[in-house]
Amino acid sequence: MNENIEPQAAPAPNCEADEKSTAQVEELEIDLNHLFPGEETDLNVLFPDEDIKRLLKNISKNKKDLHAIKERISDENVPASDAEENEASTGEASENTD
Known about the structure:
Number of strands: 0
Order of helices and strands: HHHH
Oligomer: single chain
Strand content: under 5%
């Protein structure tokens, strides 16, 4: 009866689906004990939910990034603050002599 039915073409592979599956595999491999080595308890048992693991991983990464930014800013400001202190002390000394 339906002899003219053409086979449907397989949908084109979706790159987003492949990226999501790769991300899911990475999420499954989150080891909280590796991220927080100083803890005595098994964090993987304490936080078995993958969403919580991902959240804790992101928090750890953000904390490291903020620390690096803070160090970079303080390193950039140290020479400037030393120069300002030298100018301020020189300026105070010249005021005292007048």
